[in-house]
Each structure stands twice: as structure tokens, then as C-alpha cells.
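#lab-general

N.A. 3:47 PM
ok so I finally got the sequence cleaned up, no stray characters, all 90 residues accounted for. can someone with queue access submit it? mine expired

B.Y. 3:52 PM
send it over

N.A. 3:53 PM
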Amino acid sequence: MSGLFSKGYNEPFNIYCNQEVTDAIKKLYSSVFPDVRVKAIDEKISIHTLYDGEKLTIAGEEITFFDVHPKGNQLYGFETTLNNGKNYYF
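B.Y. 4:20 PM
back already:
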């Protein structure tokens, strides 16, 4: 990741995930890096916590996220409409 930013990548780096993953990511880098690095990471990386039914526009496309209600860990799928008018689910 640091190599990516040191080579001039200046766009925001976005991560979309559930609350459990958000907490794990923040805990990981907060426990590994010194505070000055944590601040720099927070400035470069945007972690977006998803919620069931949430709609976001990502790369110009409207994406709807949904909780698939698995047994165990929370898991999200998404739906979007492709240029050909067909819906895509993952």
C-alpha cells in the first residue's frame, strides 16, 4: 500500500465493508503503525461501512448493497444495472 502512494497515486483509496471488517482493519493498522502513520493512512484511505439496503454511487454506477444473512459473519452482496439494462448481482 505504501508503495502505491509513494509512486504518486493521489486518488482516495476506498474500501467498502461491514462494521466487523471496518473495526478489524482499523485495529490492525492502529496496532502495527505509529500514530503519525495512522493519521496518514486515515487521510489516504476511506473505509465505508455498509448497511443493508444502502445505495451508493461508485465509479458513476448506482450500487445497492444488501445483507445476505449468512450464518456466522455478516456478509454483503450488491446489485447494479449494467449498460445493457440487465441487473448484476454478486
